[in-house]
Amino acid sequence: MTDAPLNGHALLDFNSPLSDAKAYGLIGGLHPTPGQSIVDYGCGWAELLLRAVEHQPGVLGIGVDSDDHAIARGRANVESRGLADRVTLALADVTTFDTDPADVAVSIGASHAWGGAEATLEAMRARLKPGGTLLLGDGFWEREPNALARGIFGDAGFTPLPDLVDLALAGGYRLLNLTTATLDEWDDFESRWCASRERWLLANPDHPEADAVRGIVDDHREGWLRGYRGALGFAYLTLARR
Questions:
Q1: How many other CB atoms are found less than 10 A from the CB of residue 2?
Q2: Position 4 confidence tier, pLDDT thresholds 50, 70, 90
Q3: Measured between alpha carbons, how far is 202 from 58 in angstroms, rounded to an integer?
Q4: CA 53 to CA 77: how far, in whole Å?
């Protein structure tokens, strides 16, 4: 698209169902110390990473994502918040990005890059120092999904929450903390995703691509409200590498 919205992220703080309060709670549970590194695999525009670095002076941050628009947004935020000496954002494939093992690793909503939660846990373990901490954010089924939800996420490999925790324990981790997205966080996330396009449509009703954008929003809303709302959960697991 030319001047049509390139994605639905413009009004989002995070690219997952996550409130400010919960974000700071997750950051507080990572316990990085000055001189340590946090590497965020699939960082998007790196808002959580930037807040984590701001929270603890002396911590260094690296974020990697393959979305050039997200990385550009993140780099602008790095500069505007005076973090250029402590945060580096790389436009790269998370599965092949090469850096030293981290003290803290983050992977939120990026399990698809490795082919599921189990493979992500294995990949993150190799990218963490012994005793390091992983913040994993991934989907799970709160209840049996209907046909529409399965059609949208059928190949994502989501499991019930206890099975996701079992995967982490079997993969060489211990569980330090578990929290899940509330329905309010989900609804806020989905509403903001749609609203960026809806606002563009209000301002550009006769744009040649308006029908296409409207179709994207309508399909997304249908999948959310009649498909996975209340069925798809999202968990944040704080894990210690054994």
A1: 7
A2: low
A3: 45
A4: 13
